[in-house]
Specification:
By secondary structure, this protein is α+β, with helices and mostly antiparallel strands. The protein has helices at 60-63, 65-69, 105-123, 148-155, 167-178, 192-199, 210-213, 223-231, and strands at 4-9, 16-21, 24-30, 43-45, 48-50, 79-81, 100-102, 129-130, 158-159.
């Protein structure tokens, strides 16, 4: 029997303990803090003291990550359609019908590079369309502000820009209208919770529902804060 290790991981889905035995994940749980951890912050407001639970909160997908890691549907290696010949008959009409076979990383890399060369030779570099992820993705080549543009410019490509689907909207919209980027109308972000607990009478969530849409980043860390405000009678 192997030894069980407890490891930690922290990302947008919430900080977790990951239990590993014989090199495999056995379970994933929220981090529970004990006396060996630093004390939590505390805010005094309107005759009460507020402090967060000694346990992290997680996004739903964080709890299910073990099943995703070991899912039989997860693709771990390069695969090629069995009736696809990059140098001959491609059988495009069989897409979605034919099965797949595993190929080596070397074969996969050669197939991709040969296809890039073929497209540039036959249609020109503008025929290669590419775009970066909305939030850039982790890594190096796929990261919008790292080697991505350097790599793609060396290859030659057409860039597909996309809509401002996150902070880009107010950031660039504000910069275009106001001519500068100093906060763009966003208030100071420090001490907002303490200020709200001590002084606020009403909070308006404009076109948002934190309990329904806050599960992506930092899990439901702020749920208890809104509960505190309700207990204090904040509308």
């Amino acid at each position: 029997m192997g030894k069980v290790e407890r490891l930690t991981n922290g990302t947008t889905g919430g900080p977790v303990f990951v239990y590993v035995k014989d090199g495999k994940i056995t379970r994933i749980t929220p981090i529970e803090f004990d006396e060996s951890d630093p004390p939590s912050w505390e805010i005094e407001a309107r005759g009460r003291k507020f402090s967060p639970p000694r346990k992290t909160t997680l996004s739903p997908y964080s709890f299910a990550w073990r099943s995703m890691v070991y899912s039989p549907k997860r693709v771990l290696y390069p695969m090629k359609r069995v009736d696809f010949d990059p140098d001959g008959k491609r059988n495009c009409t069989k897409r979605g019908e034919s099965g797949y076979e595993r190929i080596s990383w070397e074969e996969a890399a050669k197939m991709v590079t040969d296809e890039i060369k073929r497209i540039k030779r036959e249609y020109g570099p503008a025929a290669i369309l590419s775009t970066a992820g909305s939030h850039h993705l982790w890594g190096n080549i796929g990261y919008r502000h790292s080697a991505y543009f350097r790599f793609m410019n060396l290859v030659g490509f057409s860039y597909a820009d996309h809509n401002p689907d996150s902070w880009e909207g107010w950031h660039w919209g504000g910069m275009h209208n106001w001519g500068f980027s100093w906060r763009l109308g966003i208030p100071e972000q420090y001490d907002l919770l303490e200020d709200a607990l001590k002084h606020t009478e009403m909070i308006v969530f404009w076109s948002s529902d934190p309990e329904a849409t806050s599960g992506i980043y930092s899990a439901f860390e702020s749920t208890c804060r809104r509960q505190w405000l309700k207990e204090l009678g904040v509308k």
